Amino acid sequence: MVISNSIRQLWRMKGHTALFLILLCVSSGMFSVGAGFGIINDRNLQNYKDSFMTIGTVEQSATAVQEIERWDAETKSYRLTTQNVYDAYIPESALDFEGADYLSGPEKRVSYTAYNPQFKPYEGISLEIVVEVSPVEDAVPDHPVKLKITRILSGQGLLEGSIIDFCDHYNPAPAMLYQNKTYVMSLIDTQGHESEKEFADDQVREYRPAPLLGSSQYTPDGNRMPDAVAEDYFCDEVTPGFYETKRGKRWLHYIETITYAESLFPVVATNNMHLIVPFYQGDTYLSSGREFSQEEYRSGAKVCLIPELFASANRLAPGDLLRLPLITANYHKSAGQIFYTNALRPYSLLNAEGEIYEAFEDSEYEIIGIYGGSTGLGNAYGMGFNEIIIPANSVKNSDEGNIVDYGPMTGSTTSFEIANGTIPEYMEKWEKQGIRNVEITFFDRGYTRLSAGIENMNALARILTASGAVMALLVLGYFNWLFILRQSERTAVERSVGFTKKQCFLSLFSGIFLILLAGSLTGCTAGAVLSSHLSSGIGETVYYDTTFGNSAPAEAEEISVQDDGFYPIQAAAGTMAAVLLAGSLMAVVGITCNLAKEPMAMLGGRRE
Amino acid sequence: MEILRAEKISYSYRTKYQKVDAVRNVSCAFETGTMYAIVGKSGSGKSTLLSLFAGLDVPDAGSIYVQEQSIHELDRDAYRLRQASVVYQSFHLFPLLNALENVMLPMEFQRIPRKEARKRAGEILHRVGLTEQIYRQVPRMMSGGEQQRVAIARAVAAGGEIILADEPTGNLDSENEEKIVALLRSLAHNDGYTVIVITHNPRVEEAADHVFRMEDGRLTPIR
Predict the structure, then answer these.
(1) pLDDT by residue (tens digit) across A232-245?
(2) Buried-most residue among A35, A395, A530, B40 (CB within 10 A)?
(3) Which residue of A8, A490, A499 is in closest CB contact with B77?
(4) What ipTM does this complex have?
C-alpha cells in the first residue's frame, strides 16, 4: 500500500520523474562507460605489458676514429680505412646504477667457439692453404710473381709442382724471395691482382697471404697478450729441421687448426634468450621444443637450443645430447659478426705461446629446443651460422686463458630488459650517471606509442567517469531535494494522518529507490554495452609493429586481446551499486531530516 | 461520554535562544458529540496543546487519557490513524492525490478494500458538500473552502471519534468560513464527533459548545 501510494504520487510528477530518470540514465551511463572503458583500458594495458617486451641495447661509441693506411699493390698506393679508438672499455657493470630496475641484464654476451670434430658441417671447403713453395726466379712479390708448389701441407685444389701467382698485396715493402730457397706460406685464393679485371678471362689468379699464424689472445682485462709472431706474419723459410724448432712447431699447430674450421660452431651464453635481438624481433623463433626455464637460467643447467640447419644436418632432435668443448671466448663481436658465413676460422686458434687453445669447458648439453628463422644475416644483429644458445651460468670454468678478442659493448652483444613503459624514467636516471660515450637504443615493439594511445583513452575514460559521477551526484542531490527534502510537509501530513515513521520512510524511499534502480540499471547497462562496443574496436586484435624504439620499423605483428564482456559488466555493476548507494544514502539522510521535524510545528506554521 | 482527558499536563521545548514552557499544568476533559473551541493569543501554547492531544508529542509531566488509556501507553500512530484526526489551517492535503484519493488514504492504511474505500470516500465527500466534479481534482485545482472540506472529509474517513482542528477557517473567506463552522458543528452534534478547534475566529467561538482560553500555557474554561 505504502509503495503503491508512493509510486502513484511519483507518477503524478511525470515530468520531474521522467527528467530524473533520463538524467540518472545519462549520468549513470557516462559513469559506467567511463569506468568500464577505464577498466578495459587498464586490462588491455596490462595485457600489452605482459605481451610486449622492452629491451635496450648498449653500444660504446668510439673516443676517436683513426685512419689506417693499407698498401694496395695493384694501384701502388695506400688506401685509407678507418678504425675506432677507445680510451678504455666501459664495462657493463657501469649500467648497474641505483634505480635501474632491470627485469633482465644487463649482459654482455660472450661468443664462445665450440670445436667438436664429431660434427663436420663444413668438411673440405676451407679456402685457406698452407704450402711450401720455391720462387721460379728471385723476385720481390710487390706484384704477382711465380711460385712453384713443392709441398702441400693443408688445403685442396692444388697439386704439388704446379705454379701459382703470388703477390704480397698489402705489404708496401715485401722482402725478396729467392729462387733457391723454400718457404712455407699460409695463402688464400683470390680472383686476381687487378680488381677491375676480376672476372675477365685474361685475369691472373692470385694468391695472397692469410696471416693467421700470429695469436690474438687477450687477457681477461682486455689487453692484447704479446706474441713473438707478428700479426701479419704468413711466411717462414724452411730449412732442415725447421719443423722441430719452436717456430716450425707453431706452423704444424697452425696447420692442424685449419681443419678445425670444419667443426667449429659459435656458442652464445645468455641469461635471457630474448635479449638476443633476432629472437626479440621474431626473426628467429623456436620451431620445436621449448625455451629455457628460469630455473635453468638460474642454475646454469646444461641445456641448449640449436638451429634447424644444424639439427637437420646432424640429425639432432630435442632430447639428444650435444658435446660442446668450448675452446675460445670472444668478448668483442657477436656470433653473427664472427660466423656470418660458413667455413670460417675467423681468428687464430693459437694462443700467445703458439699452442692450440685447449677446451676450458667440455660438457654435454641436452638439446631442449630447435630454432628456425633467418640465421647468418651477415649483420651485427643477425644470428651466426650454427649458433648454439646456452644459459650463461652453464659455463662453470673460467675462460681467461682462451680469450681471442676483446672490445667494447656493442648493440649486438650487450642488452638488458626493463619494464614496459619505463624508458623515460630509466633514461632520466641513466643520464644522471654522467657516463658519456655509451649509446642505449631501446626496442619496445611500439609499446610506448600504443600505451600512449591507451593512456589518452584512459584520460578520456577518467574524464567520463568523473563527469558521470559528478553529474550523477548533482542529479541525485537535486532530486533528493525535490522528491524528499521538499516533501517534508508530506511526511508531516502522513505522520499526522497516522503513518508510522517506518511507513513515512517507505513512502518516500520506495518510490525514489525504484527510480534509482531503473535509472542506474538502464544507464549502467547502456554504459556496459557502449564501453564493450568501444573496446571491441580496439581490444579484439591489436596490431603492433616491431619497431625499434628509435629505429626503422619492421613488419607488423599482432597480438590478441579478447574482451569477454566481463569487465564492462563488472564496471556497470560497480557503478550501479555506487549510484544506488549514493542515492539511497542521500534519500535516507533526507528522509531522516524530514522525520526529525515536528509535524505540528511544520503544518501549523508556527508553534504556539 | 468523556473520550479525552488531560491531567495536569505540562510541556516545554527549547528554541535556539530559550526554553519555552508552552503548556503548564493543564487539566481538562472532552466529551463525544461536543464541539470545543480553544482561543488565545498567538504564542499562548494552543497548537502545542493540540499536538499533545494528537499524540504527536507527549507531555513532560501529567498525562492524557484517551478513553481512560494513558497516551504514554498508546500506539500513538494507530491512535491518529483510527481515533484522532487533525485538520489544519492550510489544509495540508496530499498535493499529488486527488480529492477522492486524499480521503481514501486513511482507509487504505486501515486495510479497507480499495473498492469499499472508494465508495465510502465518495459518500463522505458528498456528506461534506462536495460534488463529484471535485473528486478527481488535485488540491491546487480547488478553492480553499473545497480543500478544507476535503481535509475534514479525510479526518472523517479515518473513522475516529476526535477531530482536532487548528485554525480551520483561518484561510477562508466568510462564506466558506460559515460553511466549515457549520460542518464541524454538524459532525459534533449529528455524528457524535468530539471536535476541538483552535481558533481566533469569534464565529467559531460562538458555534462551540464549550470555550477554553489559553494564556501563557495555562488553560481556563470560559464557557
Answers:
(1) 778 889 999 999 99
(2) A35
(3) A499
(4) 0.81
